[in-house]
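To whoever is on call:

I kicked off a structure prediction for a single chain this morning and the downstream step that reads the tokens threw a length-mismatch warning. I double-checked the sequence; it's 677 residues and nothing unusual in it as far as I can see. Pasting both halves so you can look.
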Amino acid sequence: MPSSWFTLPTEIQAMEDGIEQDLLANREENREKWSSQFSFLLATVGSAVGLGNIWRFPSLVATHGGGAFIFAYVIVLLFIGLPMMTLELTLGQKFQGGDVDAFGSINPRFRGIGVASVVTSFIASTYYTVILSWAAIYFFESFVPNLPYSIHSSNPSDNATYSYADYQRGAEAHFNATHGAAESDQIHGSFNWRVFGALLFIWVCIYLCIFKGIKVVSHVVKVTAIAPVVIIIILSVMASFKAGAVGGISYYIGKIDWTALNNRDIWIAAIGQVFFSLGLCMGCITAYSSFNPKEQNISRDGKIICFSDMAVSIMAGFCVYEMLGFVKLQCLDTETEEVCDKIYAAGGFKLAFVSYPAGVAMSSNPNLWGILFFGCLFFLGIDSAFSMIIAFTTVIDDAWFSKKFPLKKPVVTGIVCGVGFLLGFVFLFDTGFDLMDVVDNYLSNWCLMLIGFVQAVACGWVYQAPYQFRRVGKFSVVLYDICFFVAITLGVIIALSGNKDSDVDVIWVGVFIGMFVWVFGLVSAVLLSKGRVSSYPEKVWCIAGWHGPDMIRRMVNKQYVPDWEPNSVTDEGKAFYRHELIAAPFGFLIKYIIPAVLLMLVGLALNKDLQAPYGGLSLSYNILGILVVGMVVSCMVILFLFPRLWYDSSYAGDESWIAWVFIPKSVRSAENVKLGK
């Protein structure tokens, strides 16, 4: 691996020290700011809390041991979610820029990480808004006296004459008609005009929420972030008086199966839920924190955001399972216990648009129930949706071409929203439902995991690498780095080669081999090290220590507690209980635990998708998801290899831009490069 990949080329370093640093120096003064810290917290919590909190988290709790899943979720939140959240918040606030500037300030070659994250976010917004369109349709239909998603009959009579099965069929038929999906042998390329109108409405709402920038968003989130929490509480209280509600709560958390913790599936589900629910690696968190003043307490904010997200998820579970308990009780009038228990297994679209609406239709005052529930879905989704667009527009506003060819924020926002609206048409045809499922799978299980992995590697392994080179020599550091990544790759491959139920020993074989390669690399690197350090303990720390994350931690802690000293027993102890400080394990988690875990998840996704096309769909469907992954990976790889692509071509001076971008300094004269301010 060329050493220049760890260090900054001379020309690019000059840019960073000159032009880019001048921009950073003025950025905080000229940058928009949140109207208050409370507005920032509302916006960030609103971005994190989304549709998955109400239709995914509760079903995971119910199907993975009840309270045991909540325990696993908290562990994962503390050791993966909170460190990644703190990292993104810190980078955005410190460098006063979106994802591209934040990671580019670590090393210009990492601007591709930021580009990949906001591209992922923007692609997600194109189908997320379609789901919001369904919720909007259901919301407005809830004002109709005879609910369209109730009994599937042209002339419904007294509701008492209908069974649970009738309501269930009615809800299913209406949802199928709403999303317009067709069976593979019935595809005619029809376009869903009703959802088209709703999609236009959603994008107009997004534009109106953000077109004036953060100042307007500061006021909007006081409605969009608070309203769904209030509605969830209201729905939970109302549903608690329904017959069967206690049974639903009992199924939700009443049965704690601690043996479920021995199954790797519960931990994989918890990791996935934490990662997706917090909105990590999508550029949203970094963009929002970039509008903070530099002195804001980011460590405390990260804890508030993470635990607020978890609290809303748990509350949503009570709201959902109280209603499902009522639905099951109605089901038992005509069906067996075994059939009715399947109601509790509902999750995702089926929960939000079939099972819950069936319960709404069977309730007294069904219109009120429908208005509240689908209004809640709308508010939960809208601030998550516009945070994805803000992540994208923030990167555009920060880029050099926006400084060179300035456009007003309403124009930029309008263009981005318009493009997002047009791209959403892909999901409005009768093939759109399956395409949405495919793209979401590849985006969630591939793109976000890969971006998170690279983010952790950039901050844990590359940031502050020149310091390591000076202390123990370049060769030993690179040798150790290579051995570590070979170790975890081998460990994951071997662990995934066996059956998860019968070949448990294979997992431990993978762990043992991975640990052996890791230790071998460390010992070899220490013995071959050359530099200023002579003692072996210090060599081990210089080679294997988490210097990049520790630098970030020291910066944050000293900012809020000026007399705080690292490696002091007293001060390090304070960091474990004082909310404004980042504790010592932060660096270890960023450098070692998180990359290994995310690489394992990528391996699981690869192993699963190689065995059979996702969802049993043909390659013609899966190709769209594969193209999305390819585009995201290309963003990271191309800008890693050619970081000058993100710079203004005028920096090339008299020589051609192509030569300036692609031809190394070693084969051309550095005098031709003009780096003036």
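Update from on-call: the warning came from a stale cache, not from the record. Cleared it. Sanity check on the structure: Residues 298-331 form the longest helix (34 residues).
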